[in-house]
Write a structure and sequence with these properties.
Order of helices and strands: EEEHEEHEHHHEHEHEEHH
Strand content: 25-35%
Structural class: alpha/beta
Bound molecules: adenosine-5'-triphosphate, magnesium ion
CATH class of one domain: Alpha Beta
CATH superfamily of one domain: P-loop containing nucleotide triphosphate hydrolases
Helix content: 25-40%
Number of helices: 9
CATH architecture of one domain: 3-Layer(aba) Sandwich
Distance between the termini: 38 Å
């Protein structure tokens, strides 16, 4: 479980990128965080994986205040908090299999035959058994994101953080990547945090959603309730039920 309490992040003196965010992300959930550009979504994710340190507030993951982690415990924490990005983050000079094996190298400074076999299994799992020796440039956007998902699985994650994972994909690839994430959540029990500006994405896979506006959560709840009865005007705008003019 991830518990954010009164989380604030200031990059400058006059602006809060996050402004008192309190959220609980239950185990096994697919939790959406939606908001317009600049709302603070990526900042929130970067705080959760400690690429950024919050200015104030706390982040507890499985009961541990993550800012108290150091050394091997911190490396382990980061390793098991897998990330999936909009631009895939694959190494272009490495094959698909080498990309998926990267987490083993990062964790143990070596890749064993068992690691390679496991990585091939993950590539098979994401439907890319025939692309093991391909390079990223030879793959479609949807296939690249599947490689990134296989690489995330090689971290043996308890959590996967997706920052606009489908924003660069066409509708068909988006649908198949979301289906895959949903299956991974169901089958492996991995909790997934989905950052998006698309209500369609939220509707397709999330159980819960929080709406972020200028660093603040203005509305949260089950996707069913929020879609049926949106309370905040920003939520209604994101749902296309209200005009964007002020
Ligand atoms: N490294 C940084 N230094 C200074 N300001 C930053 C930095 N990163 C983000 N910001 C500012 O913090 C605010 C939130 O940015 P953030 O990237 O978290 O938004 P976002 O919701 O992810 O937007 P997008 O949908 O465009 O990705 C913005 O005002 C942005 O300019
Ligand atoms: Mg962002």
């Amino acid at each position: 479980m991830i518990v954010l309490s009164h989380l604030t992040k200031d990059y400058t003196d006059d602006e809060h990128a996050l402004n008192g965010v309190s959220l609980t992300i239950p185990d096994g959930d697919i939790f959406g965080i939606i908001g317009m550009s600049g709302a603070g979504k990526s900042t929130l994710v970067r705080c959760v994986n400690l690429l950024e340190h919050p200015t104030s507030g706390t982040i507890e993951v499985d009961g541990q205040n993550i800012e108290e982690l150091s050394g091997q415990a911190l490396r382990d924490y980061r390793h098991h908090m897998a990330m999936i990005f909009q631009n895939f983050g694959l190494l272009s000079q490495r094959t698909t299999l080498q990309n998926v094996c990267f987490p083993y190298l990062a964790a143990n400074n070596k890749i064993t035959d068992a690691d390679r076999e496991e990585a091939k299994g993950f590539l098979e799992r994401v439907g890319l058994a025939d692309k093991v020796d391909s390079y990223p440039a030879q793959l479609s956007g949807g296939q690249k994101q599947r490689v990134a998902i296989a690489r995330a699985l090689a971290c043996h994650p308890k959590y996967i953080l997706c920052d606009e994972a489908t924003s660069a994909l066409d509708p068909a690839s988006t649908a198949s990547v979301l289906k895959l994430l949903n299956e991974i959540n169901q089958e492996n029990g991995i909790t997934i945090l989905v950052i998006t500006h698309s209500m369609e994405v939220v509707e397709k896979i999330c159980k819960h959603v929080a709406v972020l506006v200028k660093g603040k959560v203005v509305e949260e709840g089950s996707v069913k309730d929020v879609f049926a009865n949106p309370q905040h005007h920003e939520t209604r705008r994101l749902l296309g039920k209200e005009q964007w003019v002020d």
